[in-house]
Sequence to fold (288 residues):
Amino acid sequence: MNLVILGLGYSAGFFARAATAAGWQVTGTVRSAEKAGRLSRDGVHTLVFNGFAVSSRLAAAIAEANAVLVSAQPGEDGDPVLACLSAQLAAAPNLRWIGYLSTIGVYGDHGGAWIDESAPCRPGSARSTLRLATDEAWLRFGETSGKPVQIFRLAGIYGPGRNAIVNLRDGTARRLVKPGQVFNRIHVDDIAGVLLASLARPRNGAVYNLTDDEPAPPQDVVAFAAQLIGVEPPQEIAFDAALLSPMAASFYGENKRVSNGLVKRELDYAFRYPSYREAMTAMAPDGG
Fold:
């Protein structure tokens, strides 16, 4: 079985390794020949896709694919994969699954309420508006092409090398406190696990929220990580948008608790890390 990953970044890299372990032949794309060479030396079959030109080798990989994951971010002109590869994807004879990695940011602010995939999308930033438009474009592609398209809306991604333990060790961790504010999170291993579960159960038009069970205040995560590694947590700082970059401030302008119930019911998936506690405890012995 052949899997093509368009945009072999942090999360998609974990999926590539999990899929390889499950017996898939994986081909991934990156934006530069330098990175492709480095990943190829690490044992990953990697091609270059810059969003503008399609090589003969990439076209051949799409033609042979049974599944395609799109992890490339959209640009101002929309999704580069749809722009360049729509015809090849539609014509691929064995393609039975297309996954698109999106974001729960498309839902915007819901005042801290619990929401699921049926919640109205009201993005509060230009980047989330573009993401929602891309979600909708991929769903339309699924309808017109007949290829099963699944949208995966990811919460805040963390995992080895990218977590509160690492931030504490390098001195960048902060405990900003905005009363009532929570964030949703998802560990990269659970992203890979949900995607593998979906490969076995494709459903055209499916939209899934990928988030763990426990939306939590960010300062609590930092405090828990500090306790695990035996250091003093940073002092709490009252939230002030002026202290943050515009992008970071926009995250604090959205507050919602996102349910993962559909993933559990439809894909029969059991989360490896139901909350940050299990994940941080597992990562702490290796330094994060």
